[in-house]
Design goal:
Elements (H helix, E strand, L loop, with lengths): L2 H8 L11 E5 L2 E4 L4 E4 L2 H4 L8 H13 L10 H12 L5 E5 L2 H19 L5 E5 L8 H5 L17 E4 L4 H7 L4 E6 L2 E2 L5 E2 L2 H13 L3 E5 L14 H4 L5 E4 L10 E5 L1 H4 L15 H14 L4 H22 L4 E7 L2 E6 L4 H9 L2 E2 L1 E3 L3 E4 L7 H16 L5
Parallel strand pairs: 3-15, 5-6, 5-7, 7-10, 10-11
Antiparallel strand pairs: 1-2, 2-3, 4-12, 8-9, 11-12, 13-14, 14-17, 16-17
Helix pairs in contact: 3-11, 4-11, 12-14
Bound molecules: pyridoxal-5'-phosphate (PLP).
Length: about 400
């Protein structure tokens, strides 16, 4: 039985999949069963930021897999401790909790916030979140996700979640109070259409959170680990959260999540209050250590930002070359959206057939999240395929 047939027969149909099955990857390139080559400008949705099978990460994983994979958090775990150190020393963080995914990291952050709030006052459990946000698919993370389609039919959602408008501080003032335990926000909304926060917005959120004694949580699951051209997106803004959630690229493909906290937030979760069997295991944290070592090497981000600017310019020239088809290019670093005047799902399929992988988010935003190691030549190739496909495609 072929992969397609087995998937149809035995895998729950929670995804609509393209009829492609990749068997090998190297850098920015993926190869399907027939040997056809694709330029990956999506990186497994902001996961393989160092490219597929980065030699240092793959070697570290192989070595670790042959040595020790799992013992449980009843014992000390060398690579876990090292990854926590690297995360803290390269961010605002003081302490880290490890888990296995973005939703689980946000779940942990929400529990941390509720515990923090209710220890001050039993009524202080509300969370302020944003319209068009995305924080994952567990019940708590979907409860703070500001897009109704994700929670429909799964209710009741968590009590005490208030939604405000992204980039609108007045709307935050309307819902915030002494009962607010936390404000959770993505520095750049990803699934919401690649929308960066305005600098004054994040600064304002910091002030509001401090005024009502609430925690400020930045969901950097998608923006973190280099995606925006710095290790963490908050570093562009000069605003530090109390809590930051990470996942996706932290293991370059090995499942891992993390909750990074400082100050009063760092000491909330005490023994027995929160846990995860797999969280921080040898394999995933060893991958994470290697990822951070590669990214914190001198000059790494100079190169990323040079190519990101090149990609952005290329996309901007496409907006000009195809008048009336696109509205704008937006995003930060290597997290870019080409805002279309048409629903772009079909275009993504055509690009895939032509050998370039991107995706469509929020209906009309063609999203580019290439591995950070993409070169100018690869960008040129990807954009030339995009031009060619656009020439033969009317769109709607
Ligand atoms: C900002 C953000 N938070 C959370 C998540 C959920 O992460 P995961 O799919 O690993 O649970 C995502 C996934 O796209 C995300 O973009």
């Amino acid at each position: 039985m072929e992969t397609f047939e087995k998937t149809e027969k035995f895998v729950m149909r929670t995804y609509n999949r393209y009829p492609v099955s990749f068997v090998r990857g190297e850098g920015c390139w993926l190869y399907d069963e027939s040997g056809k080559k694709y330029l990956d400008m999506l990186a497994g949705i902001a996961v393989c930021n160092l490219g597929h099978c980065h030699p240092r990460v793959s070697e570290a994983i192989c070595e670790q897999a042959k040595t020790l994979i799992h013992t449980s958090n009843l014992f000390h775990i060398g690579p876990q401790a090292e990854l926590a150190r690297l995360l803290c020393e390269n961010s605002f963080g003081e302490k880290v909790f490890f888990c296995n995914s973005g939703a689980e990291a946000n779940e942990g952050a929400i529990k941390l916030a509720r515990r923090y709030g209710t220890e001050l006052n039993p009524e202080k459990y509300e969370i302020v979140a944003f319209k068009n946000s995305f924080h994952g698919r567990t019940v708590a993370s979907v409860s703070v996700t500001g897009q109704g389609k994700y929670s429909q039919g799964f209710g009741p959602m968590l009590e005490g979640v208030k939604f405000a408008e992204f980039n609108n501080l007045e709307s935050v003032e309307e819902v915030v109070s002494e009962r607010t335990a936390a404000i959770i926000v993505e520095p750049v909304q990803g699934e919401g259409g690649v929308v960066p926060a305005e600098p004054d917005f994040l600064k304002g959120l910091r002030e509001i959170a401090d005024r009502v004694n609430a925690l400020l949580i930045f969901d950097e699951v998608q923006t973190g680990i280099g995606r925006t051209g710095r290790l963490f997106a908050y570093q562009h803004y000069g605003v530090e959260p109390d809590v930051m959630t990470l996942a996706k690229a932290l293991g370059n493909g090995v499942p891992i999540g993390a909750v990074v906290a400082k100050g009063r937030a760092a000491g909330v979760l005490k023994p027995g209050l929160h846990a995860s069997t797999f969280g921080g295991n040898f394999l995933s944290t060893r991958a994470g250590v290697e990822v951070l070592k590669v990214m914190t090497a001198p000059g790494f981000f100079d190169r990323v930002n040079a190519v990101a600017a090149y990609l952005r310019k290329g996309l901007e020239s496409i907006v000009e070359e195809f008048p009336g088809r696109f509205e704008a290019v937006r995003g930060l670093g290597m997290m870019l959206g080409l805002v279309c005047r048409f629903e772009c799902g079909e275009l993504v399929g055509k690009l895939l057939e032509a050998g370039v992988i991107v995706n469509c988010t929020a209906g009309r935003v063609l999203r580019f999240l290439p591995p950070l190691v993409i070169t100018e030549e690869e960008v040129d190739y990807g954009l030339s395929v995009l031009r060619e496909v656009l020439r033969g495609y009317g769109g709607r």
